[in-house]
Amino acid sequence: MWQVREKLVKALVKIADIELGDFPLLLAPMEDVSDPPFRAVCKKYGADLMYTEFISSEGLIRDAAKSKMKLDIFEYERPVGIQIFGADIGPMREAAAIAERAGPDLIDINYGCPVKKVALKGAGAGILQNIPKMVSMTKEIVNTCSLPVTVKTRLGWDENSKYIVDVAERLQDVGIAAISIHGRTRAQMYKGDADWSLIAQVKNNPRMNIPVFGNGDVDTPEKTVEYRDRFGIDGIMIGRASIGAPWIFNEIKHFMKTGEHLAPPTIKERIAAASMHFEGSLQWKGVRLGIVEMRRHYANYFKGIPDFKKHRLDLVTIDTVDEIRAKLVEIADLYLVEI
């Protein structure tokens, strides 16, 4: 058994011709989170494959500025996928063609978003109520694209419709190159525990020959190793656990390699990551949006630091670039760390 496991660990995981290592760690696409500035930080800290925020097919077709902006990708991110969502096959096919022209390494289809404004319109996880349409839409997109097409989805719409084993097989049959599965139904949203047993059933289906990535509740190196060995998946997709903690990718890789934990990030490392994120936000979003939208991240970057409340309040209220930069230097000095 151990010899078999060793062989599996050493095998390279590939999406089509994209090599990702022997057990890749993927950054999940997260709305209002996984933009280029955040992806840059995660890439620095070891993410193997990343995705854009999900992009509305209707927005791309209408040439909406916000949707077009999300197409921005950069060479240092590669490999990177553009993720699209929508309820109608025609617009999704057009959106896939537009996304492909932006030059990603792959196109990903969002069949997993559970929020009402998406799912109740038949997009995201909403399509899990209409599996034939899900398969037809996927086939059309695969036929449209010259790049690999992947899918991110959930176990099913609710407890009575967890058809993921059959769904994954059907999606593979129409040409997807990999699948990422969040171990909850749409009805669960993000509540309760993710059920990885069904993800394992997909992976262990003898008819499946594409990579199967698991997603949901992985927030420590120990869980990653446990789930890898217990469920046999090809890699892990990490979402919420990376917010304000992009070093989780390196922590996991170090633990998988050595069985030991990396030292927790110092204040210096936290400030360096937050500063990199902030500066990237200014460059990509402009000063006003860069300042305002960065505010949601500070509490996460400095989570667990004693007596930090006042500094956090300052970071989310001060309103100029120079003040924020000075505040980060002040924090470093107060905690006796050179920046």
How is this structure best described in words?
The protein has 339 residues and is α/β, with parallel strands linked by helices. The protein has two domains: 2-258, Aldolase class I (TIM Barrel, Alpha-Beta Barrel), CATH 3.20.20.70; 267-334, Putative flavin oxidoreducatase, domain 2 (Non-ribosomal Peptide Synthetase Peptidyl Carrier Protein, Chain A). The protein is built from 15 helices and eleven strands. It has helices at residues 2-10, 36-44, 57-61, 65-69, 89-101, 116-119, 131-144, 164-173, 196-204, 221-231, 248-258, 267-285, 287-301, 309-315, 321-334, and strands at residues 14-15, 18-19, 25-27, 49-51, 55-56, 80-85, 106-111, 149-154, 178-182, 212-215, 235-238. An eight-stranded parallel β-barrel has the order 3-4-6-7-8-9-10-11, surrounded by five helices. Helix 5 (89-101) runs parallel beside helix 7 and helix 12 runs antiparallel to helix 15. The longest helix is centred in the last third of the chain and has 19 residues, at 267-285. Residues 1-9 have low confidence and may be disordered.
